[in-house]
Specification:
alpha+beta, Butyryl-Coa Dehydrogenase, subunit A, domain 1, Butyryl-CoA Dehydrogenase, subunit A, domain 2, Butyryl-CoA Dehydrogenase, subunit A, domain 3, 3 domains, 11 helices, 10 strands, globular
Length: 380
Amino acid sequence: MSYTLTEEQQLIQQNVREFAEEYVQEHISKIDASGEFPTEIVNQIAEQGFFGLLFPEEYGGVDAGFLSYILTVEEISRTCAALGSIMVNHCSLAAEAINRFGSKEQKEQYLPAMCAGEIIGAYALNEFCADPGYGESKVVAVRDGDDYILNGKKYFVMNGGAAGVYVVFALTNPENVENGMSAFLVDADTPGFSVVRMIDKMGLNGCPTAEIALENVRVTAANLLGKENEGMKIVKKLQPMFKLALAAQTLGIAQSAMENSIEYSKQRIQFGRPIGKFPAIQTMIAEMATNIHIGRLALYDTAAMVEKGEEYETEASMVQLFVNKIGLKTCLDAIQVHGGYGYSEEMAVSRLLRDVKGTIAIDSASELPEKIVAENIIGL
């Protein structure tokens, strides 16, 4: 890797890698098999300060910069993608929404606890079979004096059930869905808030995913995040940074798939020699390494743009578009390298394929990256 990282960034990267290898590696199979939220490991991640990398010191953060955060997500995901998913949804969506759009009081109330891992955050945007605000069970917020009353359901809420605070998007102007969505901070112990059920997934097990219900949930106007009817502005502002975090997660998974393939290619003997000597296997591994290298350079460069305050929406979509493709291809090729054994659950590559598909599919933007890149380049 030739991308120039500062000494601090290299130390953070090395620290996360060593932490993951020492404290996470041995628990991966259990996390994947049980699907249970890994509370103890999440607490250890928080103790290391990893949850606070993005956030100001005045609110309990480390303020280490966006690239340091990206390095951390990549390294955590390289060992356990479910933990990477917990971190991305907690930091890039819930906590970052509060950090960027919250009032001083909201930041003081939530961010220190979220940086310390005392409160896990969740981002409740999705609704069943429809865009937010359009489904039969859409969440609607009605003003009642100084309060809002929320009713409806949210679907596929990552970190759902484990979270202490939810960023809930609700329709406040039914006459104009596109510009009538607002965001609210809803504590998990608010009367009327409940987890309807946990949703089983094929991958990213350990990152709980839930359907939640709000039945006459009353919150004060102080729980409104940002301005009324500007919830979708929050979504659009968070999306490019979120894409980069997901790309880091995908690259971490791809890196693990490649490493497993390299190791297996040295061990597996066919026709009297390691399969790593066969041209077909060499080609696949060479393409894995090349694609990951290029994807990583693009990701780190775009993360640096974020830190410099430059416009990066187009670049973030380019990174997402490229990394999604090479992440899935790397994991599929890893299965191929392992042959029939790769199809068994005894090999890590089968889990990596399930995890990378979830990273790409579950939290994808409603607007395809191709559309964003094309529109910004063409200018029509």
